């Protein structure tokens, strides 16, 4: 056998071995497994390399994650025990509204281990402009600590302004910790963070990908968290970059997003999530993680000279729910969303920038529509990723036939919001796609407040007024070539 023959034999053997592994040992859903089988079959060797890099089944740093999560749980155990005791009392006097949504609260507690926290005020931002205005002003007022975690930090005017403020606070002796996702911020030069490091701030990458350790490429931290002085927290869909504030010179469309500001115990629960991610990135597996208190007196959570947005609700109970690929058998946020939809009596209103639902999510939406519920979904008119739009088209076409009404926001809507019956809602970082459901580290807050549910519904209605109904025959009107392209990308939707 000549050299080429040996190479072909080895390639065939490897392909066959990986196909057998995926068929009999891969634990993910059938759709993802089928996508990988097609990739490995039609692009031998290259498909194997893609599988090793993107499937996330190789060297995921489970030990480090488990250690950091366990340690963070131990730090916050007493605090969460007090929250659980308070929750029991609150539930006993919760009235008809809370009783109606008690199963969701119990699901998130038993499944995602999420305690019920409270926020004295919840402020809702509906643009990057107002988010940065308030966030940067509040960082300027920090007295003790500033913790930040972002998927994307751009090396642009917004990114430079944030680093400048953080460096100033670090020089003042404030504890500054910044965590950013290596792949999400892949094109951001490390030079951006030098002023902050020189000032004494700590900066770390989440799951850095290197030539010798490339296998975590597909499992990224998509959360956006800021906690200031252990008393105020921010989260939602807004990263750090000019496009989020609609001030980028390369801006191709209007960017619409949703972000949340909370205080009190809700902020402490956000801090727990941050520290879990921080420890998994900063400390080596064998290195001891120093304990630190989860709560410090740092002053008022609502300073009168901070430019707060007009959308505000008071005394809101909520659960911070996280999910991630560290537990491949569980999809905590996805399952909570599915449960919310299953309990709807009148309406299901959704805002999402991407729409390639997995089979379970597709089914619950179809069932909701066929049972007569008012199901409306706002998606972008101007998409930032053309292939995701193409992959979404067949799903949209199929569900439109079942009675779901889709609307195109005039621009790019990056908001991730669900409102059920106009009275209960969730907002966070989770998109309707397999990547968010199973591959990314995500965070959503579930709000148990009729007032906040009404506020969320009002935001949805305003966005609806700035949207146009999707053409139900858009997919049918496409050329044969474009339909084929859509169906091709849909095939790989579980990997997008």
Brief sketch in words of this structure:
The protein has helices at 3-24, 30-42, 46-54, 62-92, 95-100, 102-112, 128-140, 157-171, 194-198, 265-282, 332-342, 359-370, 386-400, 434-439, 450-465, 480-491, and strands at residues 116-125, 145-150, 175-181, 202-206, 225-228, 232-236, 255-256, 259-263, 312-323, 347-351, 355-356, 374-380, 405-409, 412-413, 417-420, 424-428, 432-433, 442-447, 467-469. With 496 residues, the chain is an alpha/beta fold.
Task: Please describe what this structure looks like.
The protein has 496 residues and is an alpha/beta fold. The strands form three sheets. The protein has a 15-stranded mixed sheet, sandwiched between helices. The longest helix is centred in the N-terminal third of the chain and has 31 residues. The radius of gyration is 23 Å and the shape is globular. The model has no long low-confidence stretch (mean pLDDT 88).
Q: What is the tally of helical segments? A: 16
Whole-number mean pLDDT: 88
Number of strands: 19
Report Rg. Answer: 23 Å
Share in β-strands: 15-25%
Low-confidence spans: none
Largest sheet: 15 strands, mixed
What's the end-to-end separation, in Å? 40 Å
Secondary structure: helix percent: 40-55%
The class by helix and strand makeup works out as alpha/beta
Shape: globular
Instruction: Record the strand order, biggest sheet.
Output: 4-3-2-5-6-8-1-9-18-16-15-10-12-13-19
């Amino acid at each position: 056998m000549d050299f080429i023959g040996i190479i072909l034999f080895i390639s065939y053997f490897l392909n066959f071995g990986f196909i057998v592994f995926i068929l009999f040992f891969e634990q993910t859903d059938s759709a993802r497994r089928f996508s990988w089988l097609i990739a490995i079959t039609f692009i031998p060797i290259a498909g194997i390399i893609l599988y090793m890099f993107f499937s996330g089944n190789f060297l995921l740093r489970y030990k480090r994650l488990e250690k950091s999560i366990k340690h963070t749980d131990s730090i916050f155990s007493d605090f969460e025990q007090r929250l659980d005791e308070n929750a029991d009392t609150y539930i006993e006097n919760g009235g008809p509204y809370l009783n109606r949504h008690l199963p969701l609260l119990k699901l998130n507690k038993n499944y995602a281990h999420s305690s019920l926290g409270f926020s004295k005020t919840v402020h809702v931002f509906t643009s990057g402009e107002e988010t940065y205005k308030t966030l940067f002003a509040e960082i300027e007022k920090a007295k003790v600590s500033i913790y930040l975690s972002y998927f994307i930090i751009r090396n642009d005017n917004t990114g430079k302004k944030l680093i400048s403020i953080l460096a100033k606070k670090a020089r003042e002796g404030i504890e500054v910790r910044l965590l950013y996702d290596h792949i999400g911020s892949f094109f951001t030069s490390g030079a951006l963070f030098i002023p902050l490091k020189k000032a004494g701030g700590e900066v770390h990458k989440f799951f850095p990908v290197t030539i010798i350790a490339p296998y975590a490429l597909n499992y990224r931290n998509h959360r956006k968290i800021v906690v200031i002085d252990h008393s105020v927290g921010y989260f939602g869909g807004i990263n750090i970059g000019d496009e989020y504030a609609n001030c980028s010179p390369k801006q191709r469309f209007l960017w619409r997003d949703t972000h949340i500001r909370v205080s009190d115990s809700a902020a402490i629960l956000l801090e727990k999530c941050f520290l879990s991610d921080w420890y998994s990135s900063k400390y080596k597996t064998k290195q001891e993680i120093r304990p630190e208190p989860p709560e410090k007196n740092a002053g008022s959570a609502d300073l009168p000279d901070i430019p707060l947005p007009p959308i505000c609700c008071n005394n809101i109970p909520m659960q911070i729910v996280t999910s991630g690929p560290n537990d491949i058998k569980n999809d905590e946020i996805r399952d909570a969303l599915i449960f919310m939809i299953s309990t709807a009596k009148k309406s299901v209103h959704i805002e999402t920038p991407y729409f390639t639902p997995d089979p379970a999510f597709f089914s619950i939406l179809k069932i909701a529509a066929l049972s007569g519920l008012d199901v409306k979904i706002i998606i972008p008119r101007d998409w930032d990723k053309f292939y995701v739009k193409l992959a979404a088209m067949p799903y949209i076409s199929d569900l439109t036939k079942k009675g779901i009404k889709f609307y195109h926001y005039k621009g790019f809507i990056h908001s991730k919001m669900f409102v059920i019956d106009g009275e209960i809602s969730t907002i966070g970082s989770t998109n309707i796609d397999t990547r968010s459901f199973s591959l990314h580290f995500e965070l959503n807050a579930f709000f148990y407040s009729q007032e906040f549910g009404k506020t969320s519904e009002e935001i949805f209605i305003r966005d609806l007024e700035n949207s146009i109904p999707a053409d139900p025959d858009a997919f049918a009107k496409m050329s044969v070539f474009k339909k084929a392209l859509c169906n091709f990308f849909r095939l790989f939707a579980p990997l997008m």
